[in-house]
Write a structure and sequence with these properties.
It contains 16 helices and no strands. By secondary structure, it is mainly alpha-helical.
């Protein structure tokens, strides 16, 4: 009887035809959309934003290969010389652009080499603090510069670093030392620029690392304590390996922006005495594109900048995967 009942059950089990699978998927998708329509409604606004302000403007990249005319649409503009690469050639023959390219690469690499480890070290040290009130106070003080605009920071820099009236130089002269031209000479300007950039961002950037540290299991620290590990050993063998994936992802993103630069920071710190060190691609685009109305030239520069950033991003991602990390893609 048991064998017959098993055979009867097998006969009663009728497999669902494969052709009905899409219908079931459509029904489940419709039920899911009906149940969570509020979430998709919330997504509608950012999707429209990206379509209007991110995807549609990409059509205007073609200006880099055409002779720009304000009275013609992008589809009516004639192709530039040298098979459309006229403005790319002009850019690389432009002395100001070559200075801007060099300075952008140099300043961004300094930001990565010097500035990237600072929030990691700060997060590790902050994690070791045991007094919650002191810890929160330090965090708040470190976060505050992030909310200051670069115009305000430059105003503070003028009060501190100018050769004649700057507070630091006044103190140096009081003790018999010469004034340091923090903002008027190339090498000291670069040091000031990088130092203020680190001061402005390290507290805010440490938030991600602190969040990653909070995700590490406390049992690992307890086991290390039982084995007699000290604070530094726990930091080195547990905390750092625990946040290594986060460090790798953020480093890849930083390398992907190695030829990019914000506009406000270099623009407010520029002056005629340090232009050979302070001119970057963003300020070059402003001067030649917005002020001189050379839209095809600056579009070509922007396209070149984006392509190089993508190449750096892909190379950094592939290198991280070869080193055994997950990477971005």
């Amino acid at each position: 009887m048991s064998h017959r009942s098993k055979d009867q059950k097998k006969e009663l089990e009728i497999p669902v035809p494969a052709e009905n699978t899409p219908v079931i998927a459509k029904k489940s998708a419709a039920v899911y959309l009906k149940r969570y329509w509020q979430l998709y409604l919330l997504l509608f606004v950012p999707i429209v934003y990206f379509i209007i302000f991110k995807y549609i403007p990409t059509a205007y990249v073609s200006i880099a290969f055409k002779k720009y005319s304000i009275v013609q649409s992008i589809f009516e503009m004639p192709l530039a010389g040298n098979h459309g690469f006229e403005y790319f050639i002009k850019a690389f023959k432009n002395r100001d652009f070559l200075f801007a390219l060099r300075n952008t690469l140099f300043l961004n690499l300094l930001d990565i080499v010097i500035g990237f480890p600072v929030p990691i070290i700060f997060a590790l040290l902050l994690n070791e603090l045991r007094f919650k009130f002191f810890k929160k106070t330090v965090q708040t003080i470190a976060y505050m510069p992030h909310f200051l605009s670069w115009v305000i920071i430059y105003g503070l820099a003028l009060q501190l670093f100018t050769p004649d009236n700057g507070l630091i130089n006044m103190v140096l002269r009081h003790f018999g030392h010469n004034a340091i031209p923090f903002l008027n000479e190339g090498h000291t300007w670069v040091a000031t620029y990088i130092g203020l950039g680190i001061w402005q961002s390290f507290g805010w950037n440490s938030i991600i690392y602190l969040a990653a540290i909070s995700g590490i299991s406390p049992e690992l620290y307890e086991a290390a304590s039982v084995d007699g590990a000290g604070r530094f050993q726990k930091m080195w063998h547990i905390t750092l390996p625990g946040i290594r994936p986060t460090i790798v992802v953020l480093l890849i993103l930083a390398l992907g922006n190695v030829l990019g630069s914000g506009f406000d920071r270099p623009f407010v710190f520029q002056n005629n005495l340090v232009m050979e060190n302070a001119e970057v691609i963003s300020t070059f685009v402003y001067k030649y594109g917005i002020k001189a109305l050379q839209f095809s030239l600056t579009t070509a520069v922007g396209l070149f900048q984006s392509v190089i950033n993508v190449i750096f991003l892909v190379l950094a991602n592939s290198f991280s995967k070869r080193m055994g990390e997950r990477g971005l893609l």
